[in-house]
Amino acid sequence: MNLKITQILAVVIGILVIAGLVLVVTRREGPAEVTENVQEIVENYQASGNVSVAHWWTIDVEEQGFRVLKNKMEQLYPNMTLTPVPVPGGAGGNMPPRILPSLVAGTNIPGSFQSHPGYETARYGGYYLRNLNDLWEYANIAERVPAIVEKMCKLDGNYYLVPVGVHRTNVVFYNKQLLQQLGIDMTNPPRTWEEFFNLCDLIKQRAQERGLNIYPLEVGDGMGTDWAATQIFETIMAGYSLQTYEKFINGTVTAGELEPILQLFKRYLSYVPDDHRARNWAEACGQLFNGRVAMYVHGDWANAYFEQRGWTLGVQYDIFLAPGTENLFGLVVDGFVVPKKGNVIGGLRWVYSYTTLEVQSSFNPVKGSVSPYRDVPDNIYTNSYARNAASALRNPQTKFYPSFTHGIAIPNEILYDLHPKISEFVEFQNVSASASTIASLIRSGTYTISWDIV
Question: Could you state, in order of their start, the residue ranges of all structural domains in the chain?
């Protein structure tokens, strides 16, 4: 995957400032003049003070994962406190419109805030963010992470984001006990979308024969997580045609190329509960956990949801990769950045803290992510899926595709308009109209990253 990144500035900054959408943090942190080098800063373990960190991990295991990071940072720097600033919703997409007005105004800026690499970090760029080249060098990050992660974290030759965890988006979870109860053998999971929907038909048939009210699939696109539907669309696209996916994220896809993908998505939607918009992604996992839903196409962070409720992979539930993506890795990289005008010293200590082996080993099993750091041992992972995902991430032969749902692969202003268009399709399921509308939207963007994933 070749990335050519040039700095872009947010078009909507002025509008957001006028609208007055200023991020409020618990404590105002003015700019700190940094005179120490990064080694002096991060190795001052007796330092005192507070750092505010804005993040979007507010649901279920996400929140638990952030709590681990907070506690570990405060253990490393016992005289410091961390103030979380939650910015929920949008798969991280709500962060830029909340944080940009504060960056522009130069007030109420957190010491650090969460971001994805690619377009999401480019939206802030070097104008607002401190480059973290010195921290990358001090913590030996470039040598510790896979090449794909290193490239994605670089903008105009500089590092602005420090990765904390990696997720895979193209995963299918299923209630193994339920399918066994229905007499369905999952020794050979479906490898095509046609086989997948045949399995859905079989689940529906067997459930009806037994008088059970079971739905084959879920969405989880309600309660502020409409992005879950976009991610299913993304996964179907990657499994159907990686060439079309590449054209989509480079802004050249046509309506004709999207129509067969939307046809598959329409079939997917025919197997979900009518009230799917009443639940977010975690509550959709709850449907699978409670036996009302058999399967769910989602990201692998859901793995932690089931484990933390006492389920064991391969016993009560199991996993296979979405049809057509068996040899692919739908890539999401989570990380944090440090604004130039915030509490830079506190921000540097925060982003350094989670690069350590101890924090990585504690955080990722709770969050359901895999560590981007290759020196983190596989024995930290509690199940075979996570160990296999970590191995795939390290394997130079793995074919990755960047998630557009999570702000990495397409411009943010396009993504913000894409979510409601996907929601509109979910509601009305007009393939031709939505294909035309979505293709027009994608082709209207300004693309400064060139993706080569085929």
Answer: 13-164+335-394, 171-324
- Residue 32: pLDDT above 70? no
Q: Look at residue 2 and tell me whether its pLDDT is greater than 90.
A: no
> 3-class DSSP state for residue 399?
strand
Q: What is the pLDDT of residue 33?
A: 57
| Position 99 confidence tier, pLDDT thresholds 50, 70, 90 | very high
DSSP code at position 338: -
Kindly state the average pLDDT of the residues 428-453.
98
Nearest to 330 by CA among 300, 360, 303: 300
What is the Cα–Cα distance from 445 to 177, expressed in whole angstroms?
Answer: 46
Reported as a single tens digit per residue, the pLDDT across 133-149 is: 999 999 999 999 999 99
- On the CB side of 403, CA atoms within 13 Å amount to 30
Assign domain 171-324 to a CATH class.
Answer: alpha beta
Cβ neighbours of residue 40 under 8 Å, at least 6 residues apart? none
| CA-to-CA dists, residue 228 to 80, 219, 222, 239, 304, angstroms | 36, 7, 8, 17, 17
DSSP assignment of 82-139: EEEEE--SGGGTTHHHHHHHHHHHT-S--SEEEE-TTHHHHTTHHHHB---HHHHHHT
pLDDT per residue as tens digits for the range 9-29? 333 333 333 333 333 333 334
Count CB neighbours of 380 within 10 A.
18
Homologous superfamily of 13-164+335-394: Periplasmic binding protein-like II (3.40.190.10)
C-alpha to C-alpha distance for 140 and 156, rounded to whole angstroms = 20
pLDDT digits (tens, 9 = 90+) for 301-344: 999 999 999 999 999 999 999 999 999 999 999 999 999 999 99
Beta-bridge partner residues of 336: 114, 162
**C-alpha to C-alpha distance for 279 and 220, rounded to whole angstroms:** 5
β-strands 80-86, 49-55 pairing: parallel
DSSP letter, residue 162? E
State both tokens at 186: 């999952």
Written as one string, the DSSP assignment of 14-55 is: HHHHHHT-----SS--------S-HHHHHT-TT--EEEEEEE
Closest CA to 80 of 387, 444, 350: 350
Calculate the alpha carbon distances from 260 to 218, 232, 250, 251 in Å: 21, 14, 19, 18
Longest dimension (CA), the chain: 73
Minimal CA–CA distance to 411: which of 379, 435, 442, 365?
442
